[in-house]
């Protein structure tokens, strides 16, 4: 452990939150997408945060090593929301099925907006942690003055 | 890029200063000098890494803004620490040179 570990932990968390904001932006951008390369409407994406090596043995081992990027938080997977698509009756639409219904992604723009706010706040939180760590280190160096 | 930072050696901690033998002034001097020199080298390495990351970011190759800022801050803190130690050494030297006999 050296004096920069806290900065690296906060930096990893900021990267993860930025990726989360990207995924939310993708969801908002594709809220009305009815066709994708894999067929069917766009599926809402969700991120899975992972703390890396969480087993007790790994935690003990990490105490002896420098904290690396693997033990800091990161996004391990981006998964599809299993919610079924929303069917809207639009007979003239090119993607309508035989009964005239079009499958739209099950994306609620308000929920996505709240998620985006969460990502933004968490990013600011970690930026504040970086600043606090910086001030602690500078406070330690001021002892020498 | 993260590997680049995490592979950099840590600043010498106080344990390495404890191993300075008190036998001869020359040996002790050499050891302290080498500790200071390695601290300067590491500050220099952090500066080089930060510079590289800023260049990569501005070229648009890769890198997140926050990671680059943190790298720059690391380099700044390492430089400040080196300057503090250097100022302390110079003031100690001046204190000795003003000594009255």
Oligomeric nature of the chains: heterodimer
Along the chain, the helix and strand elements of chain A come as HEHEEEH
- Strand content of chain A is 5-15%
User: Strand pairing plus helix content of chain A: what structural class?
Assistant: alpha+beta
Question: What about the largest sheet of chain A?
Answer: 2 strands, antiparallel
What is the arithmetic mean of pLDDT of chain B?
A: 77
| Largest sheet, strands/sense/barrel of chain B | none
Total DSSP E strands of chain B: 0
Characterize the overall form of chain A: elongated
Percentage of helical residues of chain B? over 70%
- Using the alpha-carbon principal axes, give the shape of chain B: elongated
What does this structure look like?
The complex is a heterodimer of chains A (145) and B (101). With 145 residues, chain A is of the alpha+beta class. Chain A contains three helices and four strands; from the N terminus they run H-E-H-E-E-E-H. In chain A, helix 1 runs antiparallel to helix 3. Chain B is mainly alpha-helical. Helices cover 77% and strands 0% of the residues of chain B. Chain B has four helices and no strands. In chain B, helix 3 runs antiparallel to helix 4. Chain B is elongated and about 65 Å long. The N terminus of chain B is likely disordered. At the A-B interface, helix 1 and helix 3 of A face helix 1 and helix 4 of B.
Keywords:
A: 145 residues, alpha+beta, two-stranded antiparallel sheet, 4 strands, 47% helix, B: 101 residues, mainly alpha, 4 helices, 77% helix, disordered N terminus
């Amino acid at each position: 452990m050296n004096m920069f570990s806290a900065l690296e932990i906060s930096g990893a968390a900021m990267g993860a939150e930025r990726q989360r904001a990207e995924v939310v932006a993708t969801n908002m951008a594709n809220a009305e997408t009815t066709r994708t390369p894999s067929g069917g409407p766009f599926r809402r994406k969700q991120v899975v945060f992972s703390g890396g090596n969480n087993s007790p043995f790994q935690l003990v081992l990490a105490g002896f090593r420098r904290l690396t990027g693997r033990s800091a938080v990161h996004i391990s997977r981006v998964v599809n929301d299993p919610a079924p698509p929303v069917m809207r009756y639009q007979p003239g639409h090119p993607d309508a099925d035989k009964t005239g219904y079009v499958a739209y992604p099950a994306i609620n723009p308000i929920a996505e907006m709240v998620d985006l706010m969460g990502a933004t706040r968490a990013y600011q939180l970690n930026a504040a942690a970086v600043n606090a760590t910086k001030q602690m280190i500078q406070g330690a160096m001021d002892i020498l003055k | 890029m993260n590997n680049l930072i995490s592979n950099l050696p840590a600043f010498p901690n106080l344990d390495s200063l404890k191993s300075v033998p008190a036998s001869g002034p020359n040996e002790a001097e050499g050891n302290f000098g080498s500790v200071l020199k390695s601290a300067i080298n590491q500050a220099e390495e952090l500066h080089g890494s930060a510079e590289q990351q800023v260049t990569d970011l501005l070229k648009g190759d890769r890198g997140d803004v926050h990671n680059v800022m943190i790298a720059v801050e690391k380099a700044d803190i390492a430089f400040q620490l080196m300057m503090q130690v250097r100022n302390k050494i110079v003031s100690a030297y001046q204190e000795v040179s003003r000594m009255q006999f």
